[in-house]
Design a protein that fits this description.
The complex is a heterodimer of chains A (338) and B (345). Chain A is mainly alpha-helical and 338 residues long. Chain A is 77% helix and 1% strand. Classes of the chains: A mainly alpha (338), B alpha/beta (345). Chain A: The chain crosses the membrane at residues 32-50, 62-83, 90-107, 113-134, 141-161, 181-204, 235-255, 289-308. Chain A: It is found in: Cell membrane.
Chain lengths: 338, 345
């Protein structure tokens, strides 16, 4: 990217038309959205508390809900960045699967904790790199490039495992998922999730990288004219998503004590759904980490309440669909009235 | 046995041999009918007419399904007179139909089909039968009996029934016993059958009540997630039936993480890891009900017999039967050694 640009004039011409509303309005709107999501979550907690007071309002259950939110939560943070930039990553579930099975092969397990962690992260980043190169420099549409990655990563995961479950025998990994490993009552998986969320929030809201991401998603051409290397930015974003998948794969290995090619099934849809109900625009230009994480927590809490009340999976799926519709409708209402 | 070089090959080879032993077993004292003198037991190693068997199996994305494909392959390798035309496994109905049509066009002698969806593949089964190719329908049954010559498969209802009876016997002296169920994929017919069998068996034990049931997705991840929820929801229960040993790996992990050991667990299918845990005997897993992947090896035997016009050894019939339902044996510490070679990874 060494194309000559004339930032001042070009930017002056384009940005006023396409730029989102002024800062103050944006901040206020985001708050209303966050509040409406918190409202949904509070309502769910009330329902859980009323239907199963003993089981739901229990420290163990809180730990369980947060633990189960961790894996998909980390993936969703990466996804939020990609969607904010106007892209999409359909390969996240497949990358989690590939990273988890590659990291749990017997050869990798010989190197213990570090070997498994390193492999999971490297495989995630590697897949993200391929996605990023195809999209940023190969000129492929994100939908197609990541769809291709979905297919091939799943295929490779299947090839590595031969369909069998790879059980982890490294104690250091297994111990991390046990209750003795909790720090002040918080499972290590949840700590990782919290850390990724905080870093994600800071990067998106407080750094040049974050501003560039929003700018690329808002109007890529304007961003280019404003001097942003759009292609490199896109490459970094898919790398970031891959990195999150690698971390999530490691968490899943700790959680389930194994690697399986079916891991991460439908994560792409769950992560996209969580980001969208969180208030990230599918067309790009606006993203909220807080909203995405609340979205994940809402889904996990529903699943938890349903399981505690012994409702069957068909009912769970219908309710999940209804929640997505309701949350988006509520947001539209609140967003348009302010 | 020299063709088996890998350990896995050896494992499945042994599995196939024992399945063959079951088919041919206990026949020595039978008087042979003169008219049937050219009839040979299906599993006999004596070479006969050359037979080309077309095999269309599922995508091996699950330990059991992988074992199915391996069993079929290694069984076919045992016969000098059998050529196996194997297609790429697929869970896609349209793709599998295409693959079977290719096998029909190649004019294989016999077809063995484990359909991803039995109902959806009925038409192509009919097409093969009309083309004069006998079809051995493996496990997931076609909609019409005209679409296959012989069906061989597992007994899902029987799995539930035997799991229920095993648990019932273990808990029969306990008042107000509580049982929970971790089912498989709820959108599969087989899951409903397993649950129905389980419920029917428990009706024999009025002291036992099923207090919860959750469906997982046959994966380790779903097994861990759903089991963690179940353990949270049920602070005390006496027994758990888990439909599938693969998701059982996740379920056992959740049980270990919750630090629970106050109940007995029965698995399903017959994975090697489950057998090993049962043999070790220090965990909650005490037994598993079989859904034997050796059925694929037996399907090859039946296909070969069909191609060569033989019957099944050990039976008086001239022809192979129209259907064979396998038995869902309960494997516990007492008999686990016997079944260990059939365990799949």
């Amino acid at each position: 990217m060494t194309q000559p640009v004339s930032p001042p004039r070009g930017a002056d011409k384009v940005t006023p038309v396409d730029e989102p509303p002024p800062w103050r309005a944006l901040v206020f709107r985001a708050d209303v959205r966050t509040l409406s999501l918190l409202g949904v979550l509070a309502a769910l907690i009330l329902i859980g508390g009323f239907t199963k007071p003993d089981e739901f309002l229990d420290t163990r259950n809180l730990q369980l809900v947060l633990t189960q939110a961790s894996v998909i939560g980390v993936v969703t943070v990466g996804m939020t960045f990609v969607i904010t930039s106007g892209g999409i990553d359909l390969s996240v579930g497949a990358i989690v699967a590939l990273a988890s099975v590659w990291a749990t092969t017997v050869a990798t397990q010989e190197y213990g904790f570090a070997g498994i962690l390193f492999t999971a992260v490297i495989v995630g980043v590697g897949c993200g790199l391929v996605n990023g190169l195809l999209i940023a420099y190969g000129g492929m549409v994100p939908f197609i490039a990541t769809l291709a990655m979905l297919a091939s990563a799943r295929g490779l995961a299947l090839q590595i495992t031969d369909g069998s479950t790879q059980v982890v025998s490294v104690d250091a990994i297994l111990d991390l998922g046990e209750r003795d490993a909790y720090v002040l009552g918080i499972p290590p998986l949840v700590l990782v999730f919290a850390l990724v969320t905080i870093i994600g929030w800071l990067v998106l809201n407080r750094t040049t990288f974050g501003r560039r991401t929003v700018a690329v998603g808002g109007n890529a051409e304007a961003a280019r004219l404003a001097g942003i290397d759009v292609r490199r930015q896109r490459l970094y974003l898919y790398l970031l998503s891959g990195l999150c998948c690698g971390i999530a794969a490691f968490l899943l290995i700790v959680l389930s004590g194994s690697g399986q090619n079916t891991n991460g099934n439908l994560y792409e849809l769950d992560a996209i759904a969580a980001a969208i109900i969180g208030g990230t625009l599918l067309t790009g230009g606006r993203g909220t980490i807080t909203g995405s994480v609340l979205g994940v927590l809402i889904f996990t809490t529903i699943t938890n309440i349903f399981a505690l009340n012994n409702l069957q999976s068909d009912v769970q799926q219908i309710a999940k669909g209804a929640i997505i519709v309701a949350a988006v409708l509520v947001q539209r209402r609140t967003a348009s009235t302010t | 046995m020299s063709q088996f070089t890998s350990r896995r090959g050896l494992l499945f080879g042994t599995a196939a041999v024992s399945a063959g032993a079951l088919l041919t077993g206990c026949t020595s004292n039978e008087t042979k009918d003169d008219q049937a003198s050219n009839e040979q037991p299906a599993a006999a190693d004596t070479p006969g007419k050359a037979v080309t068997i077309g095999f269309a199996g599922p995508q091996a994305d699950h330990g059991w399904l992988n074992a199915i494909n391996q069993n079929a392959k290694s069984r076919a390798e045992r016969y000098e007179d059998v050529t196996l035309e194997i297609t790429e496994g697929s869970n896609d109905t349209a793709q599998q139909i295409g693959q079977i049509e290719t096998l029909i066009n190649k004019k294989v002698d016999v077809l063995v089909v484990l359909p991803a969806d039995g109902k959806a593949l009925t038409q192509v089964g009919l097409k093969a039968m009309r083309a004069g190719i006998p079809v051995v329908n493996l496990d997931r049954i076609f909609n019409s009996p005209q679409a296959y010559r012989c069906w061989i498969g597992g007994d899902n209802y029987g799995m539930g029934l035997n799991a229920g009876h095993y648990i019932g016997e273990q808990l029969k002296d306990k008042d107000d016993a509580r049982v929970i169920e971790l089912a498989g994929l709820d959108n599969l017919e087989l899951t409903k059958q397993r649950t129905q069998g389980f419920d029917d068996a428990l009706k024999n034990y009025p002291n036992i009540k099923k207090v919860a049931r959750q469906a997982a997705e046959f994966t380790v991840e779903s097994g861990q997630a759903k089991m963690a929820q179940l353990l949270q929801a049920q602070s005390n229960f006496d027994a758990l039936w888990n439909h599938d040993d693969d998701q059982g790996v996740g379920a056992l992990r959740a049980i270990e993480q919750a630090g629970r050991d106050d109940f007995l667990m029965v698995g399903g299918a017959g994975a090697l890891s489950a057998f090993q845990a049962i043999k070790k005997g220090d965990g909650v897993l005490k037994a598993t009900v079989l859904y034997p992947p050796t059925m694929a090896a037996s399907a090859i035997d039946l296909a070969r017999a069909l191609g060569q016009g033989k019957g099944v050894g050990g039976l008086a019939e001239f022809e192979i039967p129209a259907s064979l339902t396998l038995y869902s044996a309960v494997v516990d510490k007492d008999n686990v050694d016997q079944y260990m070679p059939t365990g799949f990874k």
